[in-house]
Amino acid sequence: MGVITSHKKFQESIGHYADFLKTIKAGNLDTTLYIYDGNTKTGRSSAEKKVAAKKFHSAKKETE
């Protein structure tokens, strides 16, 4: 499943952390594609996903 949104705290709001993140520019709107593979056996743990999401958003802030 994938979700595209400009909501900065989307993952925290729904309580699930994506397996993959991709920044997408939609006109002047910065959005993020959150991809959830649904495979909990091989996917990252919630804690690992949370750390990855924080790194992603920190890196994004540094480039802005």
Show unreliable segments: none
| Main β-sheet description | 3 strands, antiparallel
Distance between the terminal alpha carbons, to the nearest Å?
28 Å
Choose one word for the global shape. globular
In short:
This protein has 64 residues and is of the alpha+beta class. The chain has helices spanning 10-14, 46-63, and strands spanning 2-5, 20-26, 29-35. It has two helices and three strands; from the N terminus they run βαββα.
Could you please describe the fold and organization of this structure?
The protein is an alpha+beta fold. The protein has one domain. Helices cover about 35% and strands about 30% of the residues. The chain has two helices and three strands. It has a three-stranded antiparallel β-sheet with strand order 1-3-2, with no helix packed on it. The chain is globular, with a radius of gyration of 12 Å.
What secondary-structure arrangement, pairings included, does this model have?
Elements: E1 2-5, H1 10-14, E2 20-26, E3 29-35, H2 46-63
Antiparallel strand pairs: 1-3, 2-3
Search tags:
64 residues; alpha+beta; three-stranded antiparallel β-sheet; 3 strands; 36% helix; 28% strand; globular
